[in-house]
Amino acid sequence: MPSLEIDGYPISYAEAGDPAAPPLLLVHGTLGDQRSFAPQMEALGAAYHVMSLSMRHAWPGRWEEGGDFTIDRHVADVAGFIGKLGRGPVRLLGHSRGGHISFRVAERHPQLVRALVLAEPGGELDESLGGKPASGKQAGGFAAAAALVAVGDEEGGLRMVAEQTGGPGAWERRPEVRKYLGRDNARTLLGQLHERRAPYSRAAAQSIAAPTLLLGGADSQPQFGVILDALEQAMPKTRRVTIARATHGLNHDNPEDFNAAVLAFLAAN
């Protein structure tokens, strides 16, 4: 599989579409990798050179290779990847934790992002966006899941993460194709214990210059809607679309509507 070396580490990716077409980068979330966007590759590749990245230490890498599984490291990796492509600003799409990474790339490196798509970006809000001080609810849930993985109960940890993002029974309802992605990346949860994910702030949201599509699932857990509401209100150039018949895994639950919304937005930006 192709890769680009960023700061001494090969960032591998899956690709689709004409390499001469405008670049579109996809950034996966927790427990994911480049395969997380399999339902998007053909459809988005009809108009773009799509590159679905595997974040440092996600499959095909291994968490045992070392630490450094932080938001800041992955933001630097995505920015470095875009710079090494040498094709100017790109269209950037991130889901869940990948949405947070993509948000930070657009915040810190505005010259690299032409248009931004955030599919239920993960994280928390600070007080300037109506969040509670030192809430830490999401981080606490992921820490508990990581503790299970650390003692060898990977399935228990994966179930806990699935239920935090998808509600009771989410792991059992998850298609097998998504379960094996989680199993391949279970130990990356250990890295997220120390990722130092800052909450979203009003100042950061207001600084995003790129036109942004906010995507949410109609059947998702409430916490994702709260984040989307706050970002929609604070970011200067947003469009919001709700994907019917979809939970937090919206790009898998309803890929047809997801892909159509992304293509329509990017065609205008």
Structure report:
This protein has 269 residues and is an alpha/beta fold. It has one domain: Rossmann fold (3-Layer(aba) Sandwich). It contains twelve helices and eight strands. An eight-stranded mixed beta sheet has the order 1-2-4-3-5-6-7-8, with helices on both faces. The two termini are 30 Å apart. Keywords: Hydrolase. GO terms for molecular function: hydrolase activity. Residues 22-255 form the AB hydrolase-1 domain. Pfam families: Abhydrolase_1 (PF00561).
Roughly what percent helix?
40-55%
Helix and strand run:
EEEHEHEHEHHHHHHEHEHH
- In CATH's first tier, which class applies? Alpha Beta
Q: Which structural class fits the helix and strand makeup?
A: alpha/beta
| Number of strand segments | 8
Distance between termini? Answer: 30 Å
Radius of gyration: 17 Å
Please tell me the overall pLDDT: 93
Strand proportion: 15-25%
- Let me know the largest β-sheet: 8 strands, mixed
- Shape label: globular
Fold-level CATH name? Rossmann fold
How many independent structural domains?
A: 1
The strand line-up of the biggest sheet is: 1-2-4-3-5-6-7-8
Tally of helical runs: 12
CATH superfamily: Alpha/Beta hydrolase fold, catalytic domain
Pfam families: Abhydrolase_1
Protein name: Alpha/beta hydrolase
GO molecular function, one term: hydrolase activity
Keywords: Hydrolase
